[in-house]
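Archive entry. Fields below.
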Amino acid sequence: MATYDVIVIGTGAGGGMAIKVLCEAGLKVCALNAGRQVDPAKDFRMHRMPYDMKFRGLNSPARRAQSVGYMDNEYVAPDAWEHEIAYSTAEGTSWTWPRSNLVGGKTNFWGRSAARMGEIDFKAASRDGYDVDWPVTYEEIAPYYTRVEEMIGVASTVQNRPSNPDGSYLPPIRFRCMDYILEAGAKKSGVPYLPDRMAQLTQAFAGHPPCHYCGNCTEGCDVGAFFSSPYFFLPLAQATGNLELRTNAIAREILVDSDGRAKGVAYVDRKTRQEVEVYAKAVVAAASCISTAQIMLNSRSSRWPTGIANSSGQVGRNLCDHLYGTSAYGYLPQLLGQPSFPDNVSNGTVAWLPRWQNLDNPSEEKFIRGYSMYPGGGCDEFPSYYDEIEGFGASYKAAIKRIYPTPVSFTVQAPTQRSDKNYVDIDPEKKDTFGTPQVRIHFAWDENTLMMWEHSKQVCEDLFHKMGGEYQGHGDPESPGWSLHETGTCRMGNDPKQFVTNRFGQTHDVPNLYVCDASVLLNCTDKTTTLSLLAFALRTSEYIVQQFKAGTHTSEAPAAG
Amino acid sequence: MAGQGPSRRELLEALGLASAASLFAGFCRWNYAFGEGSAQHGHSQHPVRLAYRLQFFSTDQYRTVEVLAELILPAAHSSAHTVQPGAKEAGVAEFIDFMVFSDPALQGPFRDGLRWLDQASAPANAFRNLPPAVQTAILERLAYKANYREEEKPGQEFFRLIRKYTVTGFYTTRIGLESLDYPGLTFYGTSPGCTHDGNPEHLGL
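PREDICTED_STRUCTURE:
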């Protein structure tokens, strides 16, 4: 039976980073991926027009009924998003859970916004008294952010904002007409309007071609012009000869020896439905926030009766997420009847409104911490405003064309804070189709987040007036889970009684078990999570290499059979 | 991050499909309804129009749908020689037929709506056979809130339904997207930016 140095569960952002770093350091790695290999030529259909698709991009009724969100559409392979592995939600919880188990996971389709977190996030508790500080300083993490940016390529500008440390950037995506109008309005409103941090290659970078601006990034990229694990990390790992990638391998349980140390992983082969065991000296869990917690909670043994590395009882707790919603929508009369312009070549987030609340004074607002916003709009693939116009006939058709360049909307990204009410556990009754006990999600928006939502609606309505726009209304918050930014189920901290991992992502209880995904982040802040989890995963991976060099992980493999 | 990208999501949202358990009808594609085979990877081919075989509507129902769709999004004569095609040329009625065929939940509303239009609005004649001016007058009562009549609520709802499907069917075709000068899926070497230097507020364009 083969034995490896390290088993990495998951091949997304965090897993991909671990695989790359460990393989490059000469360690033998077995990577387990819950789904199949990705094939960009077949799986991504981003260059098709609606009329090229059997159902015009909207899927058959059968596929639509099981869709987990807007990215799970006809422009990607039907199994690009997970539909087979069931999960539970507690009574009163609604949770949208888009999981991609293709090799590379969600990095194949991610939104690419990639801002650093800062000292204001890591030391937020010291500022406002809520929850606890992170066990790291910004200064400590900054070099890892820089190195991640140098690996993946992020387009932006230096902005000197207190909540948003600057990094090392490619030239930004250019502002469109709407951006200048919004920027002028934002100035009058006293809110920032700046180029977003986008992991989208505005020039050739590290052997990867520049973006060709087709505008359909969330349906995958066939040339790898934005960061994804299969384009940026896995080939480097493969080239070392140290990687064995097992696909359709759904990790079920982390196996332990008699001392309670990790000795391997039991997984279900999706094809044969048989359980397979694989052994290694160390294990990295990087299955994504909720799945990592599920695997750890399902890893029960006499040494770890409530789940591996869970003596604190904190595995699965402290689930945080971003509330997403359209805080305002309307149109810009300045652009009525203007020629069509390629406004959506970057698939959305050319600009952002980075957090401006509670900066100098942590309690200047009714809520603590802060939120960010992303504007969108302009000439789109579909005139989705059609129902706002009365009538029919030539005048109706002309109105659709006249309004075409003008729609604008703002999406809020508002973080929840740690709460005892938001967590995942194992459903005591239900098992999924592979016989694995299902994870169960308990979640509701907290009052602080809902205050941010209300605040953002007022700010945006004012912004519409200041920019000379016509305000038409606002949406409702999306279902929790929609943002794909869940964090907190294996929080890092110095006290083994309160935290699952130490500040290096190593579990306090089981020294050869590490976590390399967003579950170690204490909360989701107003920033997106991928860049930060990459920085923390890089740090953890190098820490693992040091442990191997120091001879810490030398446990003998169990006898075959 | 997810959810900021407005592009294709807007289409789904406009149709109420963004949530997981939507009940929206199935769509055929413009090419598909005339036979499989042209959905190759990469840029689309010009659609080849073959005879369309009705899958759900009766011939009379289909003619009514065709008339309604063309009334909603008509061909426009921009000059003596140029015609901008409308819903009929874009195959919208065929598209709606396939969609209604694909989704049983839509079949009742369409059947009832078409019947309502014939019975309540034109008792002596089928809607499709009325003079265009009369057809337009009927739709004006259903399309504008100021003209609403309490007893015509089913007709108003049906108008909204068929307008939704007409718009969707039209603007997901090459003809419809060209009518908007849709600027997407065009490849650029650098990101295209605003060219109105010195006029950030874009006043007086």
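CURATOR_NOTE: The CA atoms of residues 176 and 343 of chain A lie 7 Å apart.
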